[in-house]
Each structure stands twice: as structure tokens, then as C-alpha cells.
Amino acid sequence: MELHAQWLRIQEMISPLNFAWQMSRINPAVLQRIEAEAAGGDPVLAQARADLFKMLSAVDDPDDARVISQAYETFENAQAYIALRDRDLPVRRIGKSAWPTFECKHSLGTFYIEVKSLEFQDRALRRQQIARAVLEARSRQGPAAEGNGAEPRTHSQAILNGSAAGRIDMAIGRIKRDLSLRLITQGPTLVLVDMSEREFDSSGPWSLLPVYYDSKLRSVASGELWLIAFGQPRDQVFIRPSSEGGTNLGGRLSRTGVCTDFGELLGMLFLVRTSDGLPRIFGLLNQQGDDTHSGNALTSTLMGRILASFCDDVNDQRNEGGFGKACR
Predict the structure, then answer these.
(1) What is the residue-wise DSSP string for 6-52?
(2) For the whole model, what pTM was predicted?
(3) Per-residue model confidence as pLDDT tens digits over 138-178
(4) How far apart are CA 135 and CA 267, in angstroms?
(5) Hey, where are the domains in the chain?
(6) I need a labelling partner for 165 at 20 to 30 A (CA). Which of 83, 92, 135, 238 fits?
(7) How many CA atoms lie less than 13 Å away from 261 in the CB half-sphere?
């Protein structure tokens, strides 16, 4: 497997002192699947395989953040394609600038999917990695290393796990950073956020609710995915307390949710990995999504039916469209 071999070659170049978070998030099992299905004739994955091999082969140094970032973007698009295709969605890669990532010609209507990623890295874990790496490096270098000002290098632009409100604000900012009306008004459009690099088991599908009750901790908590899509500045964020009787206040939002700002969107999809290691797709429908500009007959009502057909769980901004399948 040539992609896997290139991934291993780059991994051998990376140490805790020049940590490239993108390479740590490329799943070798997915690389192997890309290669196998590209060989089997899938045109989207064949192009992804060719692009990935070219990009990974060009990496001669883990400091080459530009090429590594391009490779990661190609990988995440292929990963999203696999997840959607596995659910029998007829998706094709568009590959044109100022257009969404995928087109889906569904029996109920044609729509588009724009893929975005979120980078998460645990702050405490990263600090431990850096501290341990510095101590190990100085131990190897001996007394001469003392006072030489050596600092670990990191490419990580990851969203650090700070307060709940801060984490949601940063996620909203990352998603909206490259969105534009031109991009999302080619036709009815969903934004798919790839969160699969971070284990997402704290609340699972309950995060599609504005707020939910945790019976074990006897406390209410906010649904982070719902707030990413529909939150408003000054919304109070509630968190699951670390123990019974602990605080459940997680700060207040300062940003407006993605669908609240971009009312033209018909909704959002979240590709997540739960504690069982399997990918899940959670959907949020924007019932006020403006599809009239496109001349397409696909309404938000029809989009709700489509989301229910392939998402593991679905909700909407009014919290009245039925709460998915697994949580009924």
C-alpha cells in the first residue's frame, strides 16, 4: 500500500518536538480503504489517492506545513465521501473553486455538501507532551543544553479544550472563516463538519438538543452541536459537571451560530467518532433555510426527510422535528 508507506515514512520523521497534528489525525486504516477502493474503480477515491500520493511523496520535512495541510484536507474530503457513500448517498466530487465539495443527486432533489474540519487537541495532554519532550531532549544533550533556550516546535493550530463557551466560539469561527454566500448559494447546501479526529462520547446525540438533562449527574447540559449551528451571543452554556453537585456553568457565547448567520444553509452535518470507534453522522435541519434562490424544488421539509434517511440522529433549530432514531 503506497499511501500507507508514505504515511509511515513521514511518521518516522516526526517527534514530540516537531509535532504535526495533521499527520497524527490521518487514519492509516482509511488510507488503506482509499487505496483498495481506488483500485476497485471508484473515480472519486482514485483521484484522492493520486492527489494524496503526490502530496505525501513531496514531504521531505515535518516542517513542511503547507503540503501536510493540503494532504490532510484531501484526506478529510475522502473520509467524508466514504462516510456519505456508505449510507447510500449518490455523491460526486465537484472539484471547482467557489463551489461546495460534493453534489448529491437524491431522488427527492439535488443538494450540495461543503466539508469543513475542526482540529481539537487536549490542552493538558499537549502540555504534558511538550514538557516531557523538553526534558528528554535536554537529558540526551547533557549539561550543554541548559539555558540554550530550546523550545519544542509545533504546527498545531488545534482548537484547545478551554471553557465550553470558548470551545464552541472557536468552532463557530473556524467553520465560518471560509464560508461565503457565493459558496453556499449554488444550490441547497449543507455544511458537513468533520469532527472524527476527536472522540465524541461526552454527550453523543444529546448534543443535538439545545439543552438536556443528565439523570446520572442530576444536572442540565447544553448541546454543543446545536449551539454551533443555532447559538446566539450571550447564550448561557451549561456543561456536564465533573461530579454530582459540581458547577454546570460553562460561560456565555460571544459568537452567532453558523446557520443563524448563514440563513441560506439548509442545515449542518457532523461526522463524529463515538466511544465504540464507529463513525456517526448527526444532522441539524435549518427549517428556515432559504432554498428559493436556487430554483430547486428541494424544500427544508424534503431535506428533513433526506437527513432522517441517512443520519444517525436528527434535530432542528426549533427542537420540534423529532429527535432522530437512536434517542427516541
Answers:
(1) HHHHHHHH--TTEE-HHHHHS-HHHHHHHHHHHHTT-HHHHHHHHHH
(2) 0.80
(3) 565 555 444 444 444 433 333 444 588 988 998 899 899 87
(4) 47
(5) 2-93, 159-316
(6) 83
(7) 19
